[in-house]
Amino acid sequence: MKRSPVFRILFIAVLAAIALAGKASAVSLSDQELEAIGRRIWQNECGGRRDGLTSWNAGEQFASLGIGHFLWYPKGVTGPFDAAFPRLARHLATNGAAVPEWVLDRPCPWSSRADFLADFRSPRMEELRRLLAGTVRLQSQFIVERMEASLPKMLEAAPAAQRENVRAQFQRMLGSSAGVFALIDYVNFKGEGTQETERYQGEGWGLLQVLAGMSGSGPGAVGEFAVTAAKVLTRRVANSPPARGEARWLTGWKNRVRGYTR
User: Fold this and answer.
1) Chain-wide mean pLDDT for the chain?
2) DSSP 3-state helix, strand, coil percentages of the chain (rounded to 5)?
3) Residue 20, pLDDT score
4) Which residues contact residue 218 at a Cβ distance below 8 angstroms, ignoring those fewer than 6 apart?
5) Does residue 121 register a pLDDT over 50?
6) 32: which residues sit within 8 A by CB, 6+ positions away?
7) Is there a contact between 9 and 42 (Cβ–Cβ < 8 Å)?
8) Which pLDDT belongs to residue 148?
9) What are phi and psi of 26, to 5 degrees?
C-alpha cells in the first residue's frame, strides 16, 4: 500500500521522538493514516477478508478476532499468549463504538473451535463482524498505542548488554516508512517478546528478539529486520511442541515479514 509523503514524514518524526526519549509518547495520526495502517494489517492477517475478522485456527484454544487477530479465550481457558481482544473491546467502547453487551468484559462465548464454526453465520457472529469491520481506525489506533509502549518494555526486559543495540536497531527502523510499518505490524503479529510465558525452550520470538538479533548500522535496516525475523520465527517453530503443528504456518509467516521490504 502506497503511503503519502505527509504520512511518511509525520510517522517517522513522531516515532523517532519515542526512540530518542526511550519512553512512550502520544502519536498523532489522522483518521486517514490510521485507516491505511489498519487495512494493511488486516490484509496481512487474513487477506482483507470480512470473514477473516472472526477466526479460530485448528488446534488453538482461542478465537482470533479483528484486523490484528486479537486473542479471546473462553471461560476457564488460560494460555501462554497475550489475550488482547478484551482490551480492544474496552478500547472500542471507550472511544464511542457500540460494543455489544455480550462482548464487553466477558470471556469468549464459544467454548471450542467446533462451537465457533457451528455458529459462524449466526446473528451474533454477524453482529461481531459488523463491529470489527466498522472500527478499523480504532483498532489501528489500539495497535499503534501498543507500539508506542513497546520500546521501554523491551529495554526493561532485555539483558543489560543488549539494551543499547535494541535501542539503536529500533531507531534504524524508523529511518523509513517501511521500517515504521514493520515495527508496528510485527509487535502486533508476535508481540514485544517480553513475556516469560511467550517462550519455547526459553527462547522468545517477539520484536525484542528480532531487534536483538540485528547488528548492522545505517541503511538496509528493513532488509536485515526481515531476514532476522524469519530466523527468529524458524527457531520458534523448531522449539515448539510438536503437537501444535506450527510448521504449517511458517511459510506464511516468512512471506509476511518478507513483505516488509516491498
Assistant:
1) 90
2) 60, 5, 35
3) 45
4) 172
5) yes
6) none
7) no
8) 80
9) -65, 125
Q: Residue 48 contacts by C-beta under 8 Å, 6 or more apart in sequence?
A: 39, 42
Eight-class DSSP state of 78: -
Q: Read off the pLDDT of residues 217-247 as tens digits, 9 standing for 90 and up.
A: 989 999 999 999 999 999 999 999 999 999 9
Nearest alpha-carbon partner for 208 in 153, 143, 145: 153
75, 87, 230, 259 from 210: Cα distances, Å:
33, 25, 9, 16
Closest of 166, 171, 147 to residue 37, by C-alpha: 147
- Which value, to the nearest 10 degrees, does the dihedral of the CA atoms of residues 161, 163, 169, 170 take? 170
**Partners of residue 55 on adjacent β-strands:** 64
Report the DSSP beta bridge partners of residue 21: none
Whether pLDDT at 2 is above 80: no
Is the pLDDT confidence value at 12 over 50? no
The β-bridge partners of 203 are 200
Q: DSSP class of residue 2?
A: P
Q: What pLDDT does residue 248 have?
A: 96
- Strand runs labelled E in 70-225: 70-72
Query: What does the pLDDT look like over 56-94, one tens digit per residue?
Result: 999 999 999 999 999 999 999 998 999 999 999 999 999
Its sign, for the CA torsion 85, 142, 140, 100, is positive
**208/159 Cα distance (integer angstroms):** 11
Percent of the chain with pLDDT over 70: 89
Q: Which three cell numbers stand for residue 88?
A: 480492544
Determine the Cα–Cα distance for residues 141 and 136; give it in Å rounded to an integer. Answer: 9
